[in-house]
Amino acid sequence: MTSHRSTAASEQRLRKYRPDIQGLRAVAIMMVVAMHCGIIDIHGGVDVSFVLSGFLIGGQLLAEIDKTGKVSLSKFWARRFRRLGPAMAVTIIATAIAAWVFGSPLRFDTYMKDGLSSALSIMNWRLVETGTDYFANDGSQSPYQHFWSLGIEEQFYLVVPVTLVVTVWLSRKMFRNRALVGLFLTAVIGSSFYLGYTLTSVNQPLAYFATHTRIWELTTGVFLALVARSLSRLNAGLAAVVSWLGLATTLVTALLISDKTPLPGYAVAGPVLGAVMIIAGGCAAPRLGVERLLDNPLFNFVGNVSYGWYLLHWPLLILWPYIADRDITYSDRFRVASASFILAVAMHYVVERRFRNNVDLVLRPWKGILLGGTTTATAAGATALAIFLPLNLDTVASTTTVASGYSNQASVEDAALQTRLTAAGQSSLQKSPDDHASKSCIDSTTDKEFDLADACVLGDAKGKQTMVLMGDSHAWQWSDAFDKIGQELHTRIVIVSKGGCSPQVYDITNPELNREYTECTSWRNSAFAALDKIKPDIIVISDRARREATRTGAEALFAALKNNSAQLVYMTDTPEPGQNIPDCLATHTNDLSACNRKRSEALEFPKFRTMEQQVAEKHGAYIIDTVPLFCAQDVCPAVIGDQVVFTDDSHITSGYAKTLIPYLKPTLKKVLAG
Fold first, then answer.
1. What pLDDT is recorded for position 584?
2. Which of 305, 311, 537, 661 can pair with 344 through a Cys bridge, CB separation 3.0 to 4.6 Å?
3. Are residues 472 and 499 in contact, defined by beta-carbon separation less than 8 angstroms?
4. Residue 652 — φ and ψ, nearest 5°?
5. Domain assignment of residue 237, yes or no
6. Spatial distance between the Cα atoms of 619 and 609, rounded to a whole number of angstroms
7. CA–centroid distance for 145 within its chain
8. Alpha-carbon torsion (629, 631, 632, 638), positive or negative
9. 122 alpha carbon, distance to own chain's centre
10. What span, in angstroms and rounded, lies between the C-alpha atoms of 301 and 306?
11. How many CA within 13 A on the CB side of residue 503?
């Protein structure tokens, strides 16, 4: 490797091979794998990779424009296809097979739609559409989720050649230099960064995954390529200092970013700036620059297999709990990183090198483009066809055909002893991922004001009495059951709920927004004002038990509601299953105990639960204790009366909620009568 290093900057100002960039590529992939696998909380690896890609591609294109005045699109895209297409197709198809064999059958359809989006290089926009939280840790991640960054790069590759040719031509015509190109790139960088920064607090998935909010990082690399010749004339000492400061900036800012940092926001500018400084300083090839550290056989090898390592580590990480049939441990995270690296080495030698260095493909660009089209079509076709495969669930014979759900405490005790999923239970399982409250009467994260919609007046719309169900999603989960109760009791049911927003008056940090949930505070105040206009006879409070809960906040809630003159009812929170129950059941149809949770673990934050109930009783609220409906002695079963209890890792199914109507109705009827 040292033979590649220039002995003096004057000998070779713009080197075709940059050992420091190869080493930086290795650093970036190690940052990504370490962060994803939870080995080190370090962010920014993808951002560094974006800058590298922009610099390398920009340099190639600008050099070709200088030499010929144009860009051969066929050669450019053929190179991209040879470099990216085969390994991507292999990963997409291999992941589909592994998901079918090991993963949850209930997620396979969604996975294949993700795989199709990945093959078509639009995965980032699919994640925007679904509002995905990239850092969620609730089992909802897709094994194809990491293709978002590759999608942005592919979209960039489609646009950048033509854009550079046009802007260079215009700049030469107007200024006889590249000034216009620099101004254009600067405008793109500034506007894209601004959009990403401002959208982070408004729509985090859009800010994180969208092409137009991320393109500034790639464009920054192109701008570096534009000024590389000037940077090559930097004083060697200054260039060395800049490169070392760049590495320090990259690593320090990457370590300062935490899971509470709003991303992308302004925080990603740190690793990007560090990468810029490393590349800029390296343009002058200083003998004492950071290249002395980055130019080594290990980093060179890791850089060579970095693409395959990026492709393979994430699917293995997501599917590992299914493969190992246990929650992933810290040692498992090292196993995933190591196993995916070994697979990446095999991918490099068996797949990548075979196509990248193929002489026939290099000399005949049309064959490279054909290769790209073929691999894309193969991966897209395979995942598209897989969408129509039937569920990979064992068929279970049983005389029971209807899931009865809760009937009495004995039904919960019997469920704790059940080991096999019956045919009725399997039918309930197949419906469970979508078996949530049917009415969309829950305000979104960004809503700041409560606005009562006509569609959210349930029960008997002409009833003389009004009952309000108020809270967060743990109140909304009961809405179908309350709708039925309202019809039977001839009572109007009004749903007042907002996702992640407790009606108790305390500050909440929203994990999706990575900041204080100010939208909750303003929504809560408007909801209290709306209750004064609704004038309900009963207000039923139900919300998720939270670590942030305070006695002061609970007191403020019940004091505010008591002024409304409505009778108050407090429903204790439902248990937390600790995992996605439908996924667990789908892979443990013959061992339901693997999906049950101990009562002591399921009833999270017991001190806060007790405190909230005490405050409610102090203010004269009726108490509906829901715990006996879900737990018996020391276990909270995942299936009761052949009815799956939870629709995800937190909320109960609408089907099970409806079976609890005979338990809830008498208390509510009594309160209405009073």
1. 93
2. 305
3. yes
4. -80, 155
5. yes
6. 16
7. 7
8. positive
9. 15
10. 8
11. 33
Q: Residue 497 is encoded by which pair of tokens?
A: 């709920």
**What are the structure tokens assigned to 363, written together?**
């000399």
Burial of residue 455 (number of CB atoms within 10 Å: 0-12, 13-18, 19+): exposed
Nearest to 140 by CA among 544, 575, 650: 650
> Among residues 421, 439, 427, 518, which one has the least CA distance to residue 475?
439
Residues 419 and 300 in one domain: no
- The tokens describing 323, both together, are 């493969």
Q: Which residue has the tokens 């009791």?
A: 489
The verdict on residue 402 lying in a domain is no
Helix (H) / strand (E) element for 471: namely strand 465-471
Sign of CA dihedral 614, 466, 491, 652: negative
Q: Structure tokens of 212?
A: 């137009």
Q: Which residues of 564-598 are buried (b: 16+ CB within 10 A; e: fewer)?
A: bebbbbbbbbbbbbbbbbbbbbbbbbeebeebbbe
pLDDT on residue 137: 62
Q: Cα-flanking dihedrals φ and ψ of residue 265, to 5°? A: 45, -140
Reduce the DSSP state of residue 491 to 3 states and report it. strand
Domain match, 382 and 425 both: no
In whole angstroms, give the CA distance from residue 663 to residue 297: 69
Same domain, 364 and 479: no
Q: From residue 226, how far is each of 60, 139, 456, 521 by CA, in Å?
A: 11, 43, 57, 48
For residue 344 the two structure tokens come to 């990446």
The answer to whether 246 and 274 have CB atoms below 8 angstroms apart is yes
User: Quick check: 517 and 500 in contact, CB under 8 A?
Assistant: yes
Residue range(s) defining the domain that contains residue 77: 16-386
CA–CA distance, 493 with 457 (Å, rounded to integer) = 6
What is d(CA 90, CA 525) in angstroms, rounded to the nearest whole number?
53
| Residue 140 covered by a domain | yes
On whether both 366 and 447 belong to a single domain, the answer is no
List the structure tokens of 162: 């033509």
d(CA 495, CA 479): 7
Alpha carbons 631 and 572: distance in angstroms, whole number: 13
Residues of the chain with pLDDT under 70: 1-13, 133-139, 394-401
- Return the H-helix or E-strand segment holding 594: none
User: CA Rg, the chain, in Å?
Assistant: 29
CA distance 586 to 137: 19
Whether 479 and 369 map to the same domain: the answer is no
Residues 465 and 322 in one domain: no
pLDDT of residue 403: 74
Last residue of a domain, one of 355, 386, 417: 386
325, part of any domain: yes
Q: Within this chain, do residues 418 and 374 fall inside the same structural domain, yes or no? A: no
> Measuring CA to CA, which residue among 382, 375, 362, 378 is closest to residue 154?
375
Number of domains observed in the structure of the chain = 2
Tokens of 295: 């130019």
Angle at 535 between CA 532 and CA 540, to 5 degrees: 100
Q: What is the pLDDT of residue 62?
A: 92
Indicate whether 475 and 376 sit together in one domain: no
Residues 6+ apart with CB under 8 A from 428: 403, 435, 639, 642, 643, 644, 653, 655
